[in-house]
């Protein structure tokens, strides 16, 4: 199967930390991508994990556990501009299988 | 350097018509992938091309076809349009087709079928 599961919506406060979870099917797994998509715009690349552990990139970090088929995206020091949809995507043979996206709303 | 470009940005068609969408990848990238994104959902894979050859096809009917040209640009064609084809069509380019290759997306073509 190619099920990617992530929450539909999340709300957080400016300056806070938020964690967006993603689970995926482990068969045929070639890596896990996170993209950010603002309304009406194209997805933009945030991170790629293929090995277990945490990858940190500025305010954003991404974690992967291959044995559990689990990843999360951690956003620190939230800003209003972080309000967007966050897409988890599994790489399978070079194509990306996306989840439905998590709509994050950052409130003042 | 220019990113991925797509044309047109918006398009309105009626049922039964056909449409051609165009994509130019990032300079130096040889692979182009096409995705369909319905409102409120994540993108769904349609096709991947590398060096003018189809490398992957998603679960879409034969009404959908694509090709890649010698300059690595690509066209997506959809025949006999249905209302359900209304969506944002995204093109993504990457240097190759390896599993870890980052795909960079263009702004998309928003298609409305009436």
**Which residue ranges of chain B are poorly predicted, with pLDDT under 50 across at least 5 consecutive positions?**
none
Work out the strand percent of chain B. over 45%
- On the 0 to 100 scale, the average pLDDT of chain A is 93
Proportion of helical residues of chain B: under 10%
Q: Roughly what percent helix of chain A? A: under 10%
Low confidence ranges of chain A: none
Shape descriptor of chain A: globular
Terminal CA distance of chain B: 37 Å
Task: Give the SSE order of chain A as H and E letters.
Answer: EEEEEEEEEEE
Structural class by helix and strand composition of chain A: mainly beta
In DSSP terms, counting alpha (H) and pi (I) runs of 4 or more, how many helices of chain A? 0
Number of helices of chain B: 0
Radius of gyration of chain B: 13 Å
Provide the succession of SSEs of chain B. Answer: EEEEEEEEEEE
SS-based class of chain B: mainly beta
Strand content of chain A: over 45%
Shape, per Cα inertia axes of chain B: globular
Q: Could you give a short account of the major beta sheet of chain A?
A: 6 strands, mixed
Major sheet description of chain B: 7 strands, mixed
Largest interface, C-beta within 8 A: A-B, 25 and 28 residues
């Amino acid at each position: 199967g190619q099920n990617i599961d992530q929450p539909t919506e999340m709300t957080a406060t400016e300056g806070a930390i938020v964690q967006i979870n993603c689970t995926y099917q482990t068969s045929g797994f070639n890596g896990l991508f996170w993209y950010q998509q603002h309304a009406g715009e194209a997805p933009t690349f945030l991170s790629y994990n293929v090995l277990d552990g945490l990858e940190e990139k500025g305010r954003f970090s991404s974690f992967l556990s291959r044995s559990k088929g689990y990843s999360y995206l951690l956003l620190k020091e939230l800003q209003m501009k972080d309000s967007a949809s966050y897409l988890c995507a599994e790489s399978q043979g070079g194509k990306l299988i996306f989840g439905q996206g998590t709509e994050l709303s950052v409130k003042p | 350097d220019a990113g991925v470009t797509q044309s047109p940005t918006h398009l309105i068609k009626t049922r039964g018509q056909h449409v051609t969408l165009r994509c130019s990848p990032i300079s130096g990238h040889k692979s182009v992938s096409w995705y369909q994104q319905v409102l409120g959902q994540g993108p769904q894979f349609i096709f991947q091309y590398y060096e003018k050859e189809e490398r992957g096809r998603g679960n879409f009917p034969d009404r959908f076809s694509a090709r890649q040209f010698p300059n690595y640009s690509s066209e997506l064609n959809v025949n006999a349009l249905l209302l359900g084809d209304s969506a944002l069509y995204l093109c993504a380019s990457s240097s190759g087709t390896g599993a870890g290759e980052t795909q960079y997306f263009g702004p998309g073509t928003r298609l409305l079928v009436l």
